[in-house]
Amino acid sequence: AAWRRSAQSSRSAPRVPPRAVAVCQAHPAPDCRRPTSRVADRLAGRARVTQPSLYGRWTMSEAKADELIKKADKAVAPGLFRLKPHWEKAIPLYEEAANHYRTCKAYRKAKLAFEKAAEGQERVGTSYSAAKLVEQAAQMAQKEGASAADVAGFYRQCRTLYVEAGRSTVGAEALARGAKALESLDADTAVRLYLDAIETLEEEGADVHAAEHFRAAISFLARTGRYNDLVPMMLRFAVSCEQCKATSSMRKAYLGAVVVALYMEDLTLATQTYGDVSVVPGFSDSSECRAAERLILAYEEADVDAIKTTVQMHEFTALDVAIARLARKLPRDEVKLQELAQLANDGGPPLDEDDLT
């Protein structure tokens, strides 16, 4: 009977290896008891352990970043036994400090730290890494509330460094990101950055990569109602597509320029634009050219039904989204349409005697 009881107890209580016991003793399990309230802890005489506040952690992170900046500045400062700055040691310190500043939302200090890290990368000859750091400095400058001109200056410096590293396409993409970031802050600066991105690729002979930047700029101009700038942008996009042998995109861009001119209720500009582009090889014999001619004739006859029927053709619905949206709204004003048709039939607007041009 005693033997049976000992066998049953051995089966019900499995043997634990001594190594597992040692590990459990060295690393005890955390206390999984249900947390008590502050009053219960006070009555029981227990000390309540609290986590540091978020503000405290931010302060500690910023203080740590200040120490890293001091070490980095000391590494690049000339000393008695060091005549040249030790950038290889200072660069990671600047980057780590910048990340700490960014975590605690000290954006101005983060911007300066990223600038110093970028300067170090440029000094050691790594322009690509310097460009990436300058772009992060631009992001910090924007969060800091810097002016659009200052932020754009960072992105242009970033583009220059990328070009020096032989990465002009990446530099153009950085400019486009900067333009996207500044769209709500300064529309003129954003458009200028889009154009800089396009010109960067054109100078390097990489027009094939400029299409996405053209489309981003066109969409932004259409959304903000900057139609006077939109027509030249559409024509420039068409020329770029012609150079890249992108015939389909070229046809849509030329037709889109005519649509924008009519949306501006400028029948003279639409007629002149159509007359200039109707002789371009690849467009003159296309369905887009015939659709543009049909739309202009409907405007000259002030035929509202013909206009609405024409803009429902496939050539107009297949345009870029922003331009197709404008085409669906034609004609904008039927009264203005009658005036435009009358001016077209009379040979255009009357001449200004004081205008000698």
- Taking all Cα atoms into account, the compactness measure Rg is 34 Å
Q: Could you tell me the mean pLDDT?
A: 84
Form type: elongated
Low-confidence stretches: 30-36, 46-58
Estimate what percentage of residues fall within beta strands: under 5%
- The N- and C-terminal alpha carbons lie at a distance of 124 Å
Largest sheet: none
Strand tally: 0
Percent range of helical residues: over 70%
Structural class: mainly alpha
Topology order in helix (H) and strand (E) letters: HHHHHHHHHHHHHHHHHHH
Count of helical segments?
A: 19
Descriptive report:
The chain contains 19 helices and no strands. The protein is an all-alpha fold and 357 residues long. α4 packs antiparallel against α5, α11 runs parallel beside α18 (321-328) and α15 (287-300) runs antiparallel to α16. The radius of gyration is 34 Å and the shape is elongated. The termini are far apart.
